[in-house]
Amino acid sequence: MDRTIDHVAFGGTELYELRAAANEVGLTPTYGGEHGTGTTHMAVVPFPDGSYLELIAPTLGTDAEDAGFWPDYLAADAGPAAWCLETDDAAASAKTAIDAGLPVDGPHEASRARPDGRLVEWDMCFEGTDQRLPFFIRDRTPRSYRVPSAVRNAAVRGLRTVVVATADREATAALFARRHRYPSPVDINGPFSGFAVLPGTPLALCEPGDGALKERIEEVGEGPCAFLVGVTDLDRARNSLSLGPEIRYSDRRMAWFDHDLFDGRLGVVELP
User: Where in the chain are the domains?
Assistant: First the structure.
């Protein structure tokens, strides 16, 4: 089973707005440069465990609809756009997806030019256009080129949960069982209706109901709607992070980052 999140992509129309919001809530983004397509650029928020949050937006003069990565999400300022798992062999990951009956786009070579002039290169593989599924990445250059060192924070560990909004939870769970051998979902108290975790994996599922998630699915389709960062203690995390009210998460606690861009989209959850 694939269980470890490499990074997640949080998109919008203006990178400076995403970076400013991150700074306001106590996260520390580092400008990462322009992708090889020339249509998007990004900033990195690294975490102590090596995972990171990618803030991504169109480059100056590029319409969001023409962006090389997740144009619908960027154009809609939808925030959570994609999630990524690391692989040692991109071709083997592609074959596993094909064996599971899924269409595959890749592996493709990709790159990003850092502001210091260093070129970051990797292979990436997408499983069709289904945004519920993660994509895979394999570094061609040292991973340290792609991911800067994190600011040390005793309370923060790294990315723990991707919440996927789906119109049919059973069908989505079956997809992940077939492709990744993930277990059946278990209902818990959480931030959304129809909320369930897949034990031992980084995935949680929710069904839209009649509110904002339904509108989100109608606008950009099924896919990630929120990302949660693991913290050792919620009260301790508040010493360095700006967080909203406490929410029950099974027998633990969570909170959204206290900013309009992140509310209901990016939060923290206590580790078990």
Answer: 5-146, 156-270
